[in-house]
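Hi L.,

You mentioned the student needs an example of a multi-chain input paired with its predicted structure. This one should do, with 586 residues in total across all chains.
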Amino acid sequence: MIQSLFIANRGEIAVRIIRTCRELGIRTVVAFSQADRDSLPVRMADERVCVGPPPARESYLNVRNLITGAVLSGCDALHPGVGFLAENAAFARDVREAGLVFVGPDPDVIELLGDKIRAKRSAQDLRIPVIPGSEDSVRDGGHALETAEEIGYPVMVKAAAGGGGKGMRIVRGSGELADILAIASHEAEKAFSDGTVYLEKYIENPRHVEIQIVADTLGNVVHLGERDCTVQQNHQKLIEESPSPVVSAELRARMGEDAVRLLRGLGYTGAGTVEFLVKDGTHWFMEVNARVQVEHPVSEMVTGVDIIRQQLLAASGESLEVRQEEVRLGAYAVECRINARSAGRVTQYVPPGGFGVRMDTFLYAGCQVPPWYDHLVAKVIVTGRNRAEGLVRMEGALADLLIEGIATNQAAQRKIVSHPVFRKGTYGTGFMGEIFKEGGL
Amino acid sequence: MDFKELFALMERFEKSGLSELAFKRNGEEVCMKKAVPVAAGPASAAPLPVPAHPPAAEAGPSHAPDTEIIRAPLVGTFFRSAAPDAPPLVEKGDTVKKGRTLCILEAMKLMNEFQAEFDLVVVNILMDNGRMVEFGAPLFEVRRA
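Structure written out for the whole complex:
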């Protein structure tokens, strides 16, 4: 078993990892930048190492300082958390070369999944339904036109190295294809230093549904049901829930089997997520997130399985604590992400509480929210016997939550949760657009 | 270099993504450092608006008003000498010319020579030989010479 874990991350995910390490008796050493000196994970960890100045590229992305800090502080494993270097295959290799266990899948698997075209091809090889599109990157305008005609408009241009909506564009007709292709490729080049793009059939107003997987090195691959992440703004998830209001037991079984077959086929270990688009009872593979995800607590609350704990067990070469036939998909869980809209000192902080309420956050009264990093500051997670009960509980939790000193999206989240369209559960990824139109946000 | 050139260089540096710039020509030398470099967060949201009040000044050892603290620029192991049996690179009280190696910081099997950025007198050595240092750890108290 891992004895000492170096946490190469910050904020609420660092806090989350420390909590499970305490339960497992693992000593924690957390990396921090000068902007996070007084942060909650730095206070909670057994030890801490300053790895650089505030800008992420000089601290949380500083491979040399992170690995040296991990080795010199006597750790035997490194957890990358989410974001930063979590899906960087070269970093995972460097960690291993330094003699540390990397808490995550094999670097070669990370690399394969990071290339959306290769990932899609792997899924196809394993007979998993994929969105019709160009088999490969689109080479030139002529090739793109041909492919687009074949799959039919509207089509989606996507970046091979993609993520976060960068390099992604919808094309509705042949007249605009060449221009949009150039813009998307340029954007991808700027964001990922790789301008490779490909085409896909654009599925209008789909649901975004993902399957949570945990896998160990002994061949156990288990899925923990789905999360519906359809409520997004600029391709950033805002609300995640499980079960999805549009996934039947039969569809859940098919998607779960596909996700397990894919990650088993790739030799995947640790926690991972297989993302699908769903429309009218049909599902298409989209991509794999080769790490634990921000929204993992939703699946934890539904199944009662601590996903970080399974990750650490798998990284230690031990068996998962749960078999597929033991997974009980409980009633209902939902998460609202609280994002900062300004940085600064939090002057007041009162978390919600009570039956079925969980807060994952690094906030405390007096803490600093630095301007340098991701804007996620808290995750409000509630459970209920069913969706209606869970959403009423979430409304209450969002009303109780008090954060002063910084601006957040808390009020916007309350509007979404109480919106009749959201309550009915019948909406697609265009839902935020509807709310925008109403002028509510 | 005349002032016009210098101001032009400052302006370009201000707009660039660099956090540090050293420029040498015909025996002249200019060093520029940005106090608050441009943010480069993870591949997510745009940087948040900057806080109204600056973060608290970094805590550190107290020192005389005419001295300054030299801090570790990276995470590593602090060595006072170039090899285990070699004498220390600098001793307390030494006058050191700019460019002279003050200590070795070992990181990922690389021996990084940490050099004096200006002429100085070593007032105090603040770190024990062989200790792990984190970024920003105080190493030397020095006085500009």
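You could point out the following to them. Chain B has one helix and ten strands. Chain B has a mean pLDDT of 82.

Best wishes,
N.
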